[in-house]
Amino acid sequence: NGRRWERMESGVTNDLNGIWGSSPTDVYAVGDRGTIIHYDGRRWSSVRSGTQNLLFCIWGSSPQNIFAAGGRSTLLHFNGKAWQSVNLPQKSHFVGIWGSSSEDIFLVGDEGALLHFDGTAWVPMASGVSDVLRSVWGSSGKDVFVTGENGFVLHYDGHSWQKQPVATDEPLRSIWGDGPSNVYAAGENGLLLHYNGRNWKNVMTETGKSALQTP
Q1: Residue 155, Cα to own-chain centre: how many angstroms?
Q2: CA gap 147, 154 in Å, rounded
């Protein structure tokens, strides 16, 4: 109703790990054991995924172009009619996906796995790290951020990936922003970082604790 959060009936009992939608009447959620559910504005219903593998993340450029990824190098593509498996050139447990368009998509996972899709093929990129990569977001295809398990942020400028100085070693789980100079990264123990376009700084969480304090 736009004013408060309400519990909804998903119709499934498996854990749900990721969600994405093109509109209020076209939303998908993915989860364990190949679970995909779709919301049409009225109710959630199960969708045939064709896999029993864990699905962790989902992103699309349109209702007819959606990708869902997860464990055992699983990547599914939805063309508006059905979900189909996509073969990848690199094996990993994938946990993050984001794109600036249908021809510019980034996929991240374990052991520094980082793949790029140019609209035709998925190609491995040199991340420069061997740690788990947790999430990916960008303001454009030439301004992309990736967070890591051991407290680091990678930045892509359209040419190469470089580590950015971050004053923490806590795992960073997710990242999001609304522009190149307003980006947030969140992690364990109340960790919240903000990027102003020049550097990353710790900010206070709702618990009132510094981002570097632990319970």
Answers
A1: 15
A2: 6
